[in-house]
Amino acid sequence: MSDVQLYLFEADKNKTEATRIASQTAKRLESKELKLVDLIESLGEYLNNEEASLRSKSMAYLSEVLGAVPLKVLSRQQRALLCDFVLSRIADDSEGISSCAKALLALEERGKWDHETAAKILNTFLDYTHPLKQFKLQSERYPVLQLIDLLMARYREPLQNLHSGEGGFMSRFVSYFDGEKDPRNLMIVFSILRVPMAEWDVSSDAQELFDAVFNYFPITFKPPPDDPYGITAQQLKDRLRDCIAATSDFAPYAFPALLDKLDSSSMNTKRDVLQALISCVAEYGSRTVSLYSITLWDSLKFEILNVQEEDLAQLALMVLTEIARTLSKAAGAGGPLNAYIKPIAKESNEHLQDAPTKQSQAAGQILNAISQASPEASDLIVRSVLPNLFVLYQDANTTAKRRGLIEVLVQLVNSNRDVYGEWRTVNIERLPSDQAASNALLKFSDQALDIMSTVLTNTPINEVSYRLVALGGLLQLARVRQLLGDDKISRIIVLLDDVVIKEPSHGQDETKAAAITGLVEIAHQKPQLVVNIAFPAFMAELPDTDRDESVTYFPILEAFAKLGGEEKIFDTVITRLKNKLSAAVHQEASPKYLSAILSAMLYAFGHSSLNLQGTADRCPYFDNVILPIVDQVMQTNTSSNPFDDDAIQDLAGRVCNIILRQQILEYQARPENIWHRIWRQTDADGNNNTTPHDQKRLKRTVILLTYFVAALRKEAPLPSSPQHMLRTKIAFCTQGQSVSPQARAASLRQISLIINKFIATSELQPTISALLSDPEDILLPTKLDDNRIRIVFAITKALILRNHHATLSKLIPSILDLLPDPTRGTLVALGFSTLLSPDDILIKENHCIISSLRYQKVFTLTIPTIASSVRTAEIRVKRNYLIALSGVLRWLPYPIIEAEIAVLVPLLLQSLDLSSDETAAVDDVKAATVGTLMTILAQNPTALNEHAGSLISRLLTTITMPDAKGAKAAPVKVRTAALQCLTLVPAQLKGEVVLPFRKQVVKKLMGALDDKRRAVRGEAVRCRSRWMDMGEKDDDEDEE
Description:
The chain is 69% helix and 0% strand. By secondary structure, it is mainly alpha-helical. It is globular.
């Protein structure tokens, strides 16, 4: 059988085989084994067959062969002959039209057509396949549309010549696509039609073209579930909107039609109309828009003044903004823009007379939206509205009315700032030259400043929202470029200072917070003014000591801290805080005050955009800020040191860390650096800490050293070898009661840092092996105590972050073997929660090695062993395994545990049965377990369907207060988490699975609704509502 016969035989039965046969024919053409003439002749009897399906499949065979032929196999003459042949088939026979289009697409891919051929192809389709809807199948029409789209994309000139030279071409062309409904095809149709709309002179055919696309407005298409084509309604809307806005010739038809549909009762239709109007106004040009601006205003204002949906009002405001922006671009824009704004300003002034009303608020939004369009629009609005607004304000006899007017004033100032820019920023596109000197708001700035200053100063402090409006307005006035002079901005700074310093605390101190934020904003624009005015005022009110137990310094320190984020005054802020810290220490201020100053310094350093890095020889911030702190910590000649407080020690260490970690290696590597001296002092004190004074000094230096070690780069040399430091720290941590808990915790962190950063990979395994053997034997059961267990987990955590397999594969199994230990097993189990827990010291910013594979490593080495061991363990030991399991799972990302969900879920449910009376840490285990179950509910709820009963009963037990006297209830955080999890159950699990538990759950929740804690009661209300709603839905479905 010939290739043609084989293809026709397989075409309906095996499409893949038919395609292979066509490819085989293409290869024969390429190898010259088959001539093109012979191929066409072999098709003759089938193309002329009386059976339509046979003719169609024959053309399909030809199109597939041409699509498989490599480029440059067919000569230009052959391609031309084939093109004529395919066009003759279209003229003679409409069967196989899609295959003809595919064949032409394949031919064009192998060589461009000349202009005459492109025009001939389009005419052929218009002449012999008009209208396209006569072909019922989408698969037939789609290739034709693809071909015409290609012609439009690559052969615009010859197609435009057809339009110019032939009368009635556009009418034939537009009507060719009439009746198309398939969304895939419509995407192409809209793209095709947009070309003549946007690029050709279609003034005489504008209405026909507009009607052709507007017939589809609004798009109501909803894609079917799992649509393989991915066509969305929004994509169709975007294409249609582009067509409607393609040419200003559509304006006489588009604006009336769109405004007519704006009266629709459908909110979605209104949204589509408003979005289309935005596009039309932006594209039609100022000359056209000026003809319809008043008409558009008259229709759009109702959407804003009588709000139905908030987003509709916002879209309508965007249309008004776009109209003003478009009119502002016109030559001699004053006329059209003024004609547009004049009636808007007049009507808005009328609404402002009745303030405060919804209409007056809407009027403010309208004025704000139009003012944002351009400097010209802002000036017109300001001149038209502010004189009237100030008169109304002076005549107002109620606070409510004055507040309503102030809100509009602030909106206008905001929009003015948007178009005229700020002191340090200006939008060059919107303000091509520095026009700030012509800002119409200049004339009214004094009045605006006086009014808002008066409101802020004279309004009672309990009128928080009113004062916040005035404070925000003052801030915006100060930010507008070249609006206020330095003297007036200084006046605003003084007002904000008074709020921060003198105003008594009220509620949540929102006004103070806003005043601080305002100072930060002004400092960004005018930093020196803030330094000259605010800083002296702050320093005068900031005490050297707080012996009177006053806490008025908190907002001042907060202001200092946030002002430190401004790079131009950062150094001044740090200097002031450093001096105040020194004075406070000298005056023996309370730890609370010292902590507040250090917190402000830490915030300023942490949020500064400045580069804190020094040179190889010197770092000003370290030398000037850190060394005084270190000297104070290292003092040995006083019995009382303010740095003995735990919070102060921690804050001091963090300040040191944040500066040192940014220094270059050469600076950190200097042997005379202070941390080398601290290490030697700590080493000496560790062996001589017999008196309370010695122990306090040791605690201070150990904590400080921890932050220094954390800040060092991996390459930085240590005062002694890492192995020596490690042994020293382990020996220190194994001491008994003579070491304070804080010093021991800091030393454990140093152990983790040394192993993670400073021991080379080649030396790591020998170092750990030495710790596991004589004389250290840190895991030897006879030597095992609480301190050694903590050391083991500090070492393991460091190795996990490095993902060092050789050591972890030996260490973690050894730790797991300790879980059955009757004395220390519980503490070992609790230690597993520390392995992956977040740590603010062991982080990349501190140059630690953090492997992205640490989660997988811990999961692989712990979970399978725990899961298998827990099944056979005794009840006493089983508890330890469950605690360890929960401690690991709480930090693992869901994708890591997904494969073992079926095994883990029963174990997690058993963890909820642990008794809180056994150990207080069980409460944390339960909270972590509930968190893991919530993650599973969210990610893979089907895994819990078969355990629904067990899950629900255990959650109910967790939230229920015990009846027996002396019985311990779950903590608030556990009860709250359990209720949140229970709320998810009816939403995530199958209805038929959880519905039988509805009555039981609702009944049990009654106790939680009367819980003593508000957080629990709130979650109980939400949980009960969710379960009740589920029952009502199911009842409704049964009735239907």
